[in-house]
Design brief:
Elements lengths: L3 E2 L5 H12 L8 H11 L5 E5 L3 E8 L9 E9 L8 H15 L5 E2 L8 H6 L14
Helix pairs in contact: 1-2
Length: 138
Amino acid sequence: MTVRDCSQDDIPFMLELGNERYAELEEGYEPEAAERWLRAVVGAPAVIAVRGEESCAIAFIVWPTWTPSASYCDLGAICARKHLRHPLEPLRLLRAIDTKRRERGCSRFYIHSSFTDLAPFARRLGAVPLTQSYVVLK
């Protein structure tokens, strides 16, 4: 299984995964808006986008306002087919992002998801729990 950087040519694949995984979300899924978003971020300098055969992930490099030299990486999205032939492929994507963020000088990698429990993958990368998360609904 190969992990590689995403390009604009991979957007149809990424949208296919999104359609498979998120079409039934309570919040709704907007394929046209998702495509616009992907076209804006894939290939951008502050984005790390990688894919495998059955999954993709996007992370953002962030430069804090008051300490821009302390950049960090924040997982924006990870998406995989429901029935993976390679169940550890998402872990390989996270490892690839971790390597790339280190190469770019990012001090930390925040791994989180609103839809999937990424704790088993995060622990395998050596991540530690950071804090509780909360959400305000309408």
